[in-house]
Amino acid sequence: MNVSLIGMMGSGKTTAGRLLADKTGRRFVDTDHMIEEEKKMSIADIFSRLGEPEFRGFEKEAVKKLLKTDNLVISTGGGLPIDVENMDNLKKMGPVIWLLASPRATLRRVSKTEKRPLLDVEKPLEMIKLLLERRERCYGRADFKIDTTGKSPARTADEIMKFLEECSHDGHKP
Ligand code: S3P
Asked: Which atom of ligand 1 is found nearest the CA of 13?
């Protein structure tokens, strides 16, 4: 069973995801890294040279590849679950956890705009609010939601573990 983390850029998917992977004996993968390695290009270059629609196609390919895997913690790019088929596929692989954070906390955590061309704008806080508003309904299809504002990655990872344990005790597959 894989565990997928979804949510906006800067919501803590990578840091909490790595800890969760360590604690649960899973391998950590990040869809953006998969794409960068496969295409031998940075996310910023893909956006600027090929455009966002092409990048979204690469995300779909990455998710399809992951369908054949097991025992992973998958950190997904912030826009990946907006595609219905991507979200359906993540849910086929196991529980999907939505990490959210306030727009201000999100902005504070997002330091590397090279990987986040969508926030390389004059008013990034406004952009975060807009994206969050547009994406909330899709993110809401997750099996579990954690507000990470003011929480350490370790605490977030622990809360996810607790959720996973409760699911296994209930014999309930999210
Ligand atoms: C994006 C989020 C980024 C990256 C790309 C687009 C988005 O990933 O996939 O810049 O649309 O929200 P992170 O969420 O890992 O920063």
From this structure: 15
